[in-house]
Design a protein that fits this description.
The protein is an alpha/beta fold and 307 residues long. It has two domains: 181 residues, Rossmann fold, CATH 3.40.50.300; 110 residues, K homology (KH) domain (GMP Synthetase, Chain A, domain 3, 2-Layer Sandwich), CATH 3.30.300.20. The chain is 38% helix and 23% strand. The strands form two sheets. Strands 1, 2, 3, 4, 5, 6 and 7 form a seven-stranded mixed sheet that branches. α3 links the parallel β4 and β5. α3 packs across α4 and α6 runs antiparallel to α8. The longest helix has 18 residues. It is globular, with a radius of gyration of 20 Å. About 6% of the residues have low confidence.
Length: 307
């Protein structure tokens, strides 16, 4: 029996959350085409005859803008330091970006013992596999010639994945179990995540709004789940939907409150399935200027605790 804690890292929108959901076999992490979707570290647990993998799905590393952006980058970097295996996910359907080179430089200089490089989105064309391997060689060369010193840097295992396809993560699971050490499971076999339900509810609500809003309010939308009333087989959940400016509120609400109705209906359906009880959501769109700098609100969303 093998076990390992795996940090899933990479630049934003590389497909990390989709990969985690595929590996676990259930949706535990928010998935959206909008960048910077995952904001909390989510633990997904893969139970398998080969053993157990504890997956830490981190915020995507990106060019930080504002306090929240810098906080998310710190969470991603610190999570990677404490894992048994560092799994770096690249969107290989496009050429390497600055953030991809940054992760490679970090691996070359900090020398984690076990590293898996996943070239994701292999179902798309063109596929830039050779460019990523060239970028890795360049990172090694730069570390050798600078202060980083690449001597002793790991020889990463490379694999490809199509994380949005059934079975598209099988090669990743095989590689991770090959790299894992013999050990006892870290969690009971019958759970897939220890992610707090309050954050899971907030993630589902936020995902549904992002599906409607696209780029209109990209990163200035926050969800704070307040009271959860449990009454037998029904939960009543109240949540605040935060925006930064008054002009954003009508965009989020939508004509005739159509966006709120859509998000509520879709999130209620999804969450009822996840938790096995009927979910009733009350959503209140509120203007909270500079909420991304408010420690009280950031703590309520789980960001400061994750730091």
């Amino acid at each position: 029996m093998k076990s390992a804690v795996v940090a899933i890292v990479g630049r934003t929108n590389a497909g990390k959350s989709t990969l985690v959901n595929n590996l676990v076999g259930e949706k535990i992490s928010i998935v959206s085409p909008v960048e910077q979707t995952t904001r909390n570290m989510v633990r997904g647990i893969v139970a398998d005859p080969r053993g157990q993998l504890v997956l830490l799905d981190t915020p995507g590393l990106h060019k930080a803008v504002g306090n929240l952006g810098r906080l998310l980058n710190r969470i991603a970097r610190r999570t990677s330091a404490g894992a048994d295996i560092l799994c770096v996910v690249f969107d290989a359907s496009c050429a390497p970006q600055m953030e991809d080179a940054g992760w490679m430089a970090r691996v070359a200089s900090e020398k984690p013992q076990k590293v898996l490089f996943v070239l994701n989105k292999s179902d798309r064309k063109p596929f830039f596999e050779s460019m990523y391997k060239d970028a890795w060689n360049e990172a090694l060369s730069n570390a050798d010639s600078g202060d980083g010193n690449a001597e002793g840097a790991p020889d990463p295992v490379w694999t490809t994945a199509a994380s949005n396809m059934p079975g598209g993560a099988d090669s990743v699971a095989a590689a991770l179990f090959d790299m894992a050490e013999e050990g006892e499971p870290l969690f009971p076999e019958d759970i897939v995540t220890d992610y707090p339900r309050r954050f899971a509810i907030a993630d589902s609500i936020r995902e549904k709004f992002l599906a409607r809003l696209h780029g209109e309010v990209p990163h200035e939308l926050g969800i704070v789940v307040g009271k959860i009333d449990e009454n037998g087989g029904e939960w009543k959940v109240s949540a605040d939907v935060l925006v930064n400016r008054p002009s954003q509120k009508p965009i989020v609400v939508g004509r005739g409150a159509e966006n709120v109705k859509y998000a509520r209906k879709c999130a209620e359906r999804e969450l009822s399935s996840v938790f096995g009880v009927k979910i009733r959501l009350e959503l209140w769109v509120k203007v909270e200027p500079l909420w991304m700098r408010n420690d009280r609100l950031l703590s309520a969303m789980g960001y400061l605790d994750a730091e």
